[in-house]
Each structure stands twice: as structure tokens, then as C-alpha cells.
């Protein structure tokens, strides 16, 4: 089968790999689309995502949609449209029994965080555990369904915030995750959703999704002590400082973007003086199921997708995805 493979920094090729054979409890899927995530960009541009270095050829991709190709049990018919929950959960641990996405020793499709690496889904076929497969409504196009994984991340952030119904929400950063976080807040009943970014392109896309206001960082002022909930989707230390300042007394700030794994300066004074709650969020638990429902109900979410390249133009797709002013979510069509 054909696959997109990252061999190291700025080395991405199309390769021929053995077609995987499903075992008991597994299913083989024919992939249709793969979305390019920030971690995929890091693996390509840097040869690593944080501490996770590409040490062997890595097939990227965990934002996926496709159809069933072969189910040895016969439970899923060939051609059934699906998306994938990309996590293989690890070892249950005390105190987090109900949060398997936090269990140690887990794995995630397209990740160099395991050895051997956990290969992703930017290939003609992929074999996954049947419990990872989510069948799709007939009314949900495969192209839009590729957003299920990142939308699950956004929905989980809203859950970590304790919900946003009736609250004023600031979304810091209007990349794909920020856009989906804004859409999640709107669908969850926020009375006001305001999006920020340093670039005009992402802010235009946020307005098209229906946010109540936008703020261009460096040009416009972010209101201080105004928002009930802040969803910080950039991971940039300066943006975290701004997020803390934007939260009202006893407000909640959720870090959705991943900060650098190194000491960086952040002003924590508002955290104490206003008794803020600063919360982290990692991927998602089961919110992908709600994401599928929301994508089916709201076709407008497909606007987050700005580009769709054939697999033969994968390098161009990755280059485009790195330009956040001109691109939102970039997809790769994985060989018809």
C-alpha cells in the first residue's frame, strides 16, 4: 500500500509499505482523508514534536476518516463510513479510573512518543482495534468527518472548563483548534464568544463561524478582568499571561495549546489576586462521539477546512498548513 512517511526533518516521501492484515478484534479501514495537526507539522519541520524525536520512518496522521475495508468478524460491512478515536488507552491508575486518556503507557496514532513508533493513518489502509472505530451518520460527509478528532479536543476543553452555558468566553488563538473551540463554546450556550489572533486571516475565519467579536493581538486591546472562561489555544507564554489578565475574578483559564516543555516567563499574579482556576486539558476522553453528532448537525463547521490536497502533493499540503494566515485546517486526500 502507499503511505506518506516522515523520515526526519523536512524529509517527507510517498513510500510503499506492506498492506496490514487485521487480527481478531481489529478492522482494516480504507482511508479517505487525513488532517494535518500541529504535531504532524512539528514532526515534519523539526524532526520531533517536543521530546518525541522521529527515530524511524513515521506515518503521520490521527485526524482521519474513511470506510471499512475488512472486518474479520463480519460485524462492520465493507464501505461503512467511519472515523477513528486515535487513542489506545494504557494501564488504569488510581484516581483517574474514569479518565482513560490520562492512563500511563497509552499510545496515539501517528506518534513518535512510543517505541516502536505508533504509525498513523495517512496511508491507503490502516488496521485499528474495533473499539477505536466510530461509524458515521449517512448524512455526514467523510471530508467534514475528518474534523471529529480536533473537535473532540475542543469539546473536552469546554468540559474541563465546567461548561460555558451563560458565560462570556475568550478563545485565545484562531488556528483550527481555536476555531473549533469557539464553535464548541457557541454550541454549548456561551452568551458571548470572542476570538483573538495576531493575524487577520484566522480572525476572518472566526467571524465566519459566528463569534460575537474578534481581537487582533498587537493592534486591539484585550479587556482585562472581563471573561468568565478563557480557552488558551496557542501555548505561547505571552498569550498565557494575556489569558490570565483577561479572566474576571474567580474565572477559569484552560490551557488547550501545549506550551514549550521548558522554563518560560508567565505573569501568575492574577492567578492569586483574583483567585483564578488554571486548568490543563489533554486531548479528549469520549468527546469524539459528541463531535460526530455536532459535525452532522452543523455543516457550517466544514468552513474550518480551507485546503484539500491530493496525497501526491503532501509536501505542499504541509507547507500550506504551516502558514496560519492563509490556512485553517488542511486535509490530504488519501488515494481514491
CATH homologous superfamily descriptor of the largest domain: Medium-chain alcohol dehydrogenases, catalytic domain
For the residues shown, what is the average pLDDT?
97
The percent range for strand residues is 25-35%
Q: If you compute it from the alpha carbons, what radius of gyration comes out, rounded to the nearest whole angstrom?
A: 20 Å
Give the CATH topology of the largest domain: Quinone Oxidoreductase, Chain A, domain 1
Write a compact overview of the structure shown.
The chain has 336 residues and is of the alpha/beta class. The chain has helices spanning 38-46, 142-145, 148-160, 176-187, 200-209, 237-246, 269-273, 287-297, 314-321; strands spanning 2-8, 11-16, 26-35, 48-49, 52-53, 63-70, 81-84, 87-88, 107-108, 125-129, 133-135, 168-172, 192-197, 213-216, 227-232, 247-255, 277-280, 305-310, 329-333. The protein folds into two domains: 2-135 and 298-333, Medium-chain alcohol dehydrogenases, catalytic domain (Quinone Oxidoreductase, Chain A, domain 1), CATH 3.90.180; 153-280, 3-Layer(aba) Sandwich (Rossmann fold), CATH 3.40.50.720.
Amino acid at each position: 500500500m502507499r503511505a506518506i512517511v516522515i523520515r526526519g526533518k523536512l524529509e517527507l516521501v510517498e513510500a510503499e509499505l506492506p498492506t496490514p492484515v487485521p487480527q481478531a478484534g481489529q478492522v482494516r479501514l480504507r482511508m479517505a482523508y487525513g488532517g494535518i495537526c500541529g504535531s504532524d507539522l512539528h514532526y515534519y519541520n523539526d524532526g520531533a514534536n517536543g521530546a518525541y524525536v522521529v527515530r524511524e520512518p513515521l506515518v503521520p496522521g490521527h485526524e482521519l476518516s474513511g470506510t471499512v475495508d475488512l472486518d474479520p468478524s463480519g460485524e462492520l460491512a465493507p464501505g461503512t463510513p467511519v472515523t477513528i478515536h486515535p487513542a489506545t488507552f494504557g494501564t488504569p491508575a488510581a484516581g483517574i479510573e474514569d479518565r482513560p486518556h490520562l492512563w500511563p503507557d497509552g499510545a496515539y496514532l501517528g506518534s513518535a512518543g512510543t517505541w516502536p513508533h505508533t504509525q498513523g493513518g495517512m496511508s491507503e489502509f490502516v488496521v485499528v482495534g474495533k473499539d477505536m472505530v466510530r461509524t458515521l451518520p449517512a448524512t455526514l460527509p467523510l471530508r467534514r468527518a475528518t474534523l471529529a478528532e480536533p473537535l473532540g479536543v475542543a469539546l473536552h476543553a469546554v468540559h474541563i472548563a465546567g461548561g460555558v452555558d451563560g458565560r462570556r468566553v475568550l478563545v485565545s488563538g484562531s488556528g483550527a483548534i481555536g476555531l473549533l473551540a469557539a464553535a464548541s463554546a457557541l454550541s454549548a450556550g456561551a452568551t458571548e464568544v470572542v476570538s483573538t489572533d495576531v493575524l487577520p486571516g484566522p480572525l476572518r475565519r472566526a467571524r465566519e463561524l459566528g463569534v460575537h467579536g474578534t481581537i487582533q493581538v498587537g493592534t486591539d486591546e484585550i479587556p482585562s478582568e472581563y471573561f468568565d472562561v478563557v480557552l488558551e489555544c496557542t501555548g505561547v507564554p505571552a498569550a498565557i499571561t494575556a489569558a490570565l489578565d483577561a479572566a474576571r475574578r474567580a474565572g477559569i483559564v484552560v490551557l488547550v495549546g501545549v506550551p514549550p516543555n521548558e522554563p518560560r516567563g508567565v505573569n501568575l499574579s492574577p492567578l492569586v489576586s483574583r483567585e483564578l482556576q488554571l486548568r490543563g486539558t489533554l486531548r479528549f476522553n469520549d468527546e469524539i462521539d459528541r463531535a460526530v453528532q455536532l459535525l452532522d448537525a452543523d455543516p457550517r463547521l466544514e468552513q474550518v477546512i480551507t485546503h484539500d490536497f491530493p496525497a501526491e502533493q503532501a509536501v505542499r499540503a504541509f507547507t500550506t498548513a504551516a502558514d496560519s494566515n492563509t490556512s485553517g485546517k488542511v486535509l490530504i486526500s488519501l488515494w481514491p
